[in-house]
Fold each of these.
Amino acid sequence: MSEHILELRNITKIFPGVKALDNVRFQLKKGEVHALMGENGAGKSTFIKIITGVHQPDGGDMLLDGKPVFFSSPNDAQAAGIAAIYQHVTCYPDLSVTENIFMGHERIGGFGRLKWNEMHAEAKTLLERLDATFSPKALMGSLSVAQQQIVEIAKAFSQNARIIIMDEPTAALTKRESEDLYRVTEQLRDEGVSIIFISHRFEDMYRVASRVTVFRDAQYIGSWNVKDISPKDMIIAMVGREITQLFPEKNHSAGKELFRVENLGKAGYFADISFTLREGEVLGFTGLVGAGRSELFQSIFGIMPYDRGRIFVEGREVSLRSPGQSMREGVAYLPEDRQKQGLVLTWSIGRNISLPSLKDYSRRGWIREKEEIRRSHSLSERLTVKAPSVHDPAGSLSGGNQQKVVMAKLLNTNARILILDEPTKGVDIGAKSAMYGIIDDLAKKGYGIILIASEMPEVLGMCDRIIVMKGGRMTAEFGRDDASQEAILEAAMANRPAG
Ligand SMILES: Nc1ncnc2c1ncn2[C@@H]1O[C@H](COP(=O)(O)OP(=O)(O)OP(=O)(O)O)[C@@H](O)[C@H]1O
Ligand SMILES: [Mg+2]
């Protein structure tokens, strides 16, 4: 018996114009949690898809229990006991949770009848194990992204896999939900399941993995015991250089009022929300699970209606009842759920970026088209989008690079009020620091920026003022000098609204 349940040697994968993997190797022990880390576009998801038979390598060997295997389809990998939770939830929104869990491996009784009662019951047990509170009969489309992620995990469990691969499972999860996922992961590990865990969050790695392997630019960089590698050395392995200062120096000076919200409310979601945003300000909104931040800003942007309250842009009362209206008033929004908000994946990166400002380019023929390309190119460079050219389809980008394109698209609008909901989730540390630099630049140019953020260093490192929400209400407001992690957490858990 081999010491390793899974081993890959000299794996190479070439897509047209891109070498996604160049001679990489990897060893997975039975019953370990092994983190796989690297920048956006390093080749992590491609590597996973080779293990799960979605892609076939152009070179190299894969050994399962020491014996060579070749998977020509995902079914082969599944039959060999390998299950994966992919970076982008691949569910069927119109089907029930149970149907999603058993899709492709339904329980079938006599006369080919589907055993629905048995499947619902089994789904219920699986979901209970994951502490989920929704029904197996719920429609997948009615669930939040985090809940859909839980269904994906339940699906992997239902296949009795020996190897489970999770590609950025925590990217859409809150701290509390991540904690549940760690617990389940450890439980599986103790039962002898081997796990590969991809994440951009160092805290995931330190919390749940015992080994880590790093890829950079399609190449294998090294493997370490997690307890032996410092965050600083991890960054050097991943990025190839040190990042000494993640956050820019804050020296914004707030100008005149850009945006004001008075007593905004929506029954069951949020109430009594009042704040102002000035030119040159980064205003943070933070809070714990279900604090209502995303719902609040979806309403402000006109995606869902609010019941009461008033909104002012530069002192003028406005009615923001649709995203189109908001854009016309100079308000732009980067939603948390970037997959749904959607890039047009078959279009080029450049065309996606210029979509919001297409009107500006289409007036004067070919000169403008050059201008369009030039601008898309410069925005994608600033955001470190990794692609051979802006003419490539957005669908060929890695997950994190697609997110950078959504951000570029937003920067290409004429909006002066930017609402950014968790803009750095799923992007690597180098790109994070680039995004922080851009946000800072925009503030210096007089834009007003609302940053919805959960990670405390980001909140403290980026915001001039911080509003804390809990249960749909504002519980505290801090200036940049009186904010501290303790004070913010206390307000996030407070029982009574402030003031
Ligand atoms: N189907 C495809 N066609 C063409 N190129 C692709 C395809 N899939 C991936 N690539 C390219 O392969 C490289 C590796 O992408 P991959 O998705 O594996 O990165 P990743 O490490 O998972 O990044 P992220 O952290 O952003 O998810 C990227 O340059 C990407 O653009
Ligand atoms: Mg990926």
Amino acid sequence: MKYNIKIYDTLTGKVVDFVPVKEDEVKIYLCGPTVYNLIHIGNARPIITFDAFRRFLEYIGYKVTMVQNFTDIDDKIITQSYKEGVSFEKIARRYIIEYWKDMVDLKVRAFNFHPKTSNYIEEIVRYIEILIEKGFAYEVENGDVYFNVRKFDKYGELSHRDTNSMISGSRIEISTYKKDPLDFALWKASKEGEPCWESPWGKGRPGWHIECTVMATEILGDSFDIHAGGNDLIFPHHENERAQALASEKQFAKYWMHNGMIQLAQSKMSKSLGNVWLVRDLLKQFDSDVLKVFIFSKHYRVPIDISEDLLRAQEISVNRVKQSLKESEEYFQGFVPYSKEGEYFKSQEEYLLKNLANDFNTPSAIARLFDLSKELNKALNSKNESMIVDNYYLIRNVYGSLFGIFESSRSVEEYAVEVDDLIKVLIEVRTTLRNNRLYNLSDYIRDTLNQLGIEIKDTSEGTKYNFKSNKSEV
Ligand SMILES: [Zn+2]
């Protein structure tokens, strides 16, 4: 690989060289949503961030395998199913479908695997049995099974916390059956009427943390490259995932990447606080390009303050870029000729990739995007065609591929290749017709193409064509 990638690794607490477990391949696990509601912009940040990180890795030639789970067994889903009087599966299915609608609108690609917890119960039960065998987990009288945190001496390494100073706080479940407040549930005995599965400890369901350890290792293997998620998951969720994996002698993730939170009115955006901005509602007001440029304009690790005013300001600058793209298309009457990239194109692309290789420095990429848009405007004013083409395709194709922004509905490059191929086929047919003296038909092809703005010329080197709107001969 040409690019020396550096990432901030939460475990070591510093920016480190990224060396994948297997050369040229990167395996990533990203914690996904609990499917009981529509997703808000805070849920969307890790998805948008790591979708782009994956695009970057693929762009520079890595084969990426990425997994994002759906948590479809959870108290919140069960509560919602009671409220509506329907099964938990129905709630989960509904919000998984809604999730995909939002992803399509955000122009986020599906990852390679999207496993659901309910499809991994057998594997989870087997995993818990191993933890019990190894002495890291214990069953209690009501049928719950807990992980014995004090037995695992590396506990706290990821979140850089000392077990003695840990307090039972956010998302640490309180239970009278636990030996220690830090212990967490691997298996929960089911209460009357709750969804449940058979297990050696009676009817119950898995705890939250075990599902990710199991699905990550089942799909990616015992050792993979990056475990990712929002930094609100570092403790206890990721600390617990890692404890379960290492206790069962799996190497698990080599690196841990975490994104910062999105803050609205100075408080963490969370459904429980009621200050929720649903992706769906935001996309009614703002284009996905505006939301994504806004998010990428800050480094993924820092918190983002979001407000309508800030988004409106971003919208103005994003619209300027769109305007310059539109003017380029108008200049070339709808079809900007694709050219083999020259020095300028290569050096801009190189700059961008180097910055992204440096702990995914998207703010510099976004700053450069606006520079390119200015260059494009200058080129339009001075009618510098090669600069129009280069800047246009840098934004449309390179930013399009890397971030899923400013994309046309189809890749313009793909479109250009198809048009070119089709015209060549027509020219071959016309030549064959002429060779057989079927001039009526060969002239029909020439005249019809001419009406479509494609000029056919027979030269000593064979038949050539050009678009009448520009003079680039093919
Ligand atoms: Zn997880």
Amino acid sequence: MKKINRSDAILSALLVVMLIATGYFGYQTMTLKNKLARYTIDSTNALTQKDQKLAQLQTENEKLSNTLKNVAGDLEELEDNYRKEKDKNDEFDDKIREISKTVGVLNKLSKTDEELLQKYSKVYFLNENYIPSDITQIEDQYVLPGKDAAFFHGDALPFLENMIEDAARDDIDLSVISAYRSFDQQEALKGQYTTVYGSGANTFSADQGYSEHQLGTTVDLTDAATAGTYNSFADTKAYAWLLKNAYKHGFTLSYPEKNGYYIFEPWHWRFVGEDLAEYLYDNDLNFYDLEQREIDEYLISIFD
Ligand SMILES: [Zn+2]
């Protein structure tokens, strides 16, 4: 039997140890390599998944953007349609308003007596059967003491009373001598004048003067001192006040000094409405200077 010497034994032991170590390290290396490979695969997979997710998200984002764009487009269209509909409605409303305004104007005009702003002359004469739509008694305090009860057009009466009170505030004394006169009253009066003055009566109580009183919107005014229809009324403070202020209450002097159609009547004032009276005052015109069609434009607002 061969004797194993000591150095062989050590060498063998070393060999065994080396083999074991080599095996162990080999194993460890393999494991690491495997781990690394697996990790690489995992990472690659994860990255690929992330890319896919990202691509998916981008696609969804695009889809959403498109949807949003479509919705915005639809909204704009809706807004446009709404605006168009609104415009149509507004236009319709405007038309309705215009029509009702026109109807209102026509209605008001149809109810306004056109005789109230008529120019009277030898050619155009108020009908003897004409009676104003509303005749109201003037309160006694506004009528010259000793005179009969006086009557005036109900719609114009507040303007007359306001004017007399406005004058009183300026220490001007104004009273009514005569206001509404029926055709019969006028005939009787004309008869009296004719008896006293003969055919000359026509120059101061001719047809047009009569007609204006028959309207119910014309009044003869005086002050206590003058107390009648005399030309001397033109020299009073009351007349001066009327010339300056009567228009504010819708009154105008029908037959001013040196007018071309009638004798001067400082006492004879006709209600024509504030708008027309102001227009006449501002332009220094007389009622009978205007064309009838020009006057007619003021009919609608006569009692405003
Ligand atoms: Zn008169």
Amino acid sequence: MQTEDFSTADFLTSPISLKLLPSTSFINDGGELFIGDVAVTDMAAEFGTPLFIYDEENLRHNISEAKAAFPAGVAYASKAFLCKAMAELVAEYGINMDVSSLGEMYIALGSGVPAENIVLHGNNKSVLEMKFAVENGIKIVIDSFDEINLLHDVTSGLKKKCRALLRVTPGVEAHTHEFVKTGHEDSKFGFPLADSVAHRAIEQLFRLGHVELLGLHSHIGSQIFELSPYVETMEIMAPIFNRYSFSELCIGGGLGVPYLGNEYAPSVSEWAKAALQAAEQAGIAKDVAITAEPGRSIVAATAITCYTVGSIKEIPQVRTYLAVDGGMSDNPRPILYGSGYEVFLPSRADAFREKAVRVVGKHCESGDILVSGGFIPVDTEVGEIIATPVTGAYGYSMASHYNRLLRPAVVFVRDGNPRLVCRRESLEDLLRFDV
Ligand SMILES: Cc1ncc(COP(=O)(O)O)c(C=O)c1O
């Protein structure tokens, strides 16, 4: 959650911490930030702003870490950030991909992710989505009794078999924002354990000739900083899991990442270790595949977003507004969840940030805030490039056309080569849907 406005905590006013920046970041003697061996301000000049810059080496490292941490299988949760280049990385490393719509399935398949490595989620899958998944051999996570009926109709209609998991809500309250909690009973997702609802669903699925029910799934929420809710989930899931001879137990995603210099989150390796240990302690057989589907923890910290400062408005005794050329259309997390970010100048990344500002976008909403309580160097001027770190997850993927702003460009940079992976939208793009 957002740090208090105008707090003068050291971490906010000191130079930006390298731990919030992508892994190949370095700051030269002149204070200029480089990512992937390219100066960030050069990329902003070449590709324009707002601009998402992803550190490709960091992405590759995170995918490899997750793959090694969950040897039985890990799926990248593509909702966090998806484009062709990202899906191609997933395909290259041979990990699985979690998708939750026809659109995500289309991009995954079209980018070379094999159908057998794709798993379809969603609490209200359409007939088309179910048919597409069954036809292509995509694994399906079943979310409701209506979906069991739909799956029956689709598999018998197509005369095709389908692999499935059943999503269970274990009743675990993760300490995170209300809108991203999903493991508690009062949730639109999955089958509750209470009143044997999940048992009934399992029995029903066992009766469907075309469905191979591999196991259970749970996802308790997102941006979770503690490992104990996962251990608790394992303890709660073990009895129902062990009653059947299932082969897979998926713990979902949700591992948190630090957005502010004073936050700490466990690594994916630590998360996996805790989950695998908890599975063993809960009596889950060694040959069961304990799988996971992290999104944010793979991509969030690998990217920054660059903006150009357009106006600095001082309101004496109140605050200073620093307005940039993007806003809630490229990062809706602050307005959705009150999420906190830091802000810094890539051209002076070693500078102390002693001026309190509220970084706002250019949308027609007072809630269009990117950084509620940020700090920048006192001599920051209109026209300079500022950046928000840790914007690789749920930014571009949640981007909108509000006020008909053009969705930003995305660059992957590695070994001195920035490559444009999503071009900035054009004015013509805005009219493409009008008939
Ligand atoms: C079913 C499921 N799995 C995985 C994820 C990924 O979560 P995160 O990005 O927090 O790791 C989500 C996110 O909402 C989800 O709904």
